[in-house]
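job 3f2a | input accepted
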Amino acid sequence: MLKRVCFVLAVLMVHSSASACSDLNGDAEVNFADFLIFINDFGKTVTCAHAEKVQLVIQNQFNDAVWDTSRNAEGVLTITITKNVSLPPPPLPPPPPPVTDDSAEGDRRALIDLYNATNGDEWVRYAPNWGSDKPLSEWYGVTTDTSGRVDTLKLDIPLSRGRLSESLGNLTNLKYLEIGYIPRSALSGPIPESLGNLSQLEVLDLDRNDLRGSIPESLGNLSQLKVLNLNRNDLKGPIPSTLGNLINLTNLDLSGNFLSGSIPESLGNLSQLKILNLEINLDLSGAIPSTLGNLSQLETLSLGGLLLSGSIPESLGNLANLRTLWLSKNELSGPIPESLGNLLNLTYLFLDNNKLSGSIPESLGNLANLRSLWLGENELSGPIPESLGNLLSLERLSLRSNQLSGPVPESLTKLTNLRALLLSGNPDLCWPASQNLETWSLNFSEKDLSKLPRCP
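job 3f2a | predicted structure (456 res):
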């Protein structure tokens, strides 16, 4: 994504003063780092005897920028710079601990470490041959490749409380790692940094445990990873921006944790992503990155139950393959973007329990595949658009607790699949005296129409 940045610097061509520019007087060389101090003087008049040096820095460091200079009668030099700045790539993750035992026998030792770290004597009855001398391919949940190296580890059993061992990072041929159990396993402690060594890994699934601590930045090294599932743990801290390096990722699920901070813009680099689920992380805040509009393969975007604020980016209208958009229970404000009417494959649209304002866009009537439309508990105003009558697949419609006004449109009677209609809590909305509407409303299993006043 491109951001437009404009710096306006006023530099007075006289003697030095106490401004930030004063350090550039004399014969000192001006470099880019020096130039950045001018940002602190934005909107002020600063004095500098070497504005020409500053101009040279601009030319060297912003050679693709559009910039102008002018000087007034008092000798004040104004430099205006307009530069297109590309979204910086996410930082490279720190290197994981080195592999110390990269062999088939090392794989056996790594699995024994896991067995010991999770009280294997208590769960081995669910997992035949663990801890034995038998070939690893005969251990429950383990498969090996032709060289005898472990390539799959899938333990869907009730493990005793324990921790993941750092030596799992020695399983360098591993492609599939899943440790979890329905209803819940009991792994605790941190996710080992050493998992960043698993350069062949395609699936990392550690959901429904009690894992704690932060998500290691080293997971950004897993360039072959397609699925990262860490949902329903006790993870805290930020989402590492290094996850933006996982360009083969198709499924990212970090929901149901205690993650905090903002959603990294770098997630917009995940061009193969189909599912992005960050829901119910009650301390995730900030704006929805407009870079998420780059995820052209995305089918599910779940950001409900967070503390997101600001407006819904227009760029989300670029997600042509999107089927589910869940932004409920945030603090989003501003209008519903007209661009959401471009999401012709959308089946579920949940924007309820926010602070959205303005009118309901007519463009939502384009969403012919929509089955649920939830816009309740906002600050929306104006009439219900006639175009909503085009949503012939719609089964559930909630517009309650807004500031909508006028009569309920008869066009809604075309929605013959509708089973739930919730309109209460709109004081200026009324129910027309229409036999068509009355007959149509008899089909609903869930409704609150009796609370609507009759239109005059």
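job 3f2a | DSSP finds five helices and 30 strands in the chain.
job 3f2a | closed
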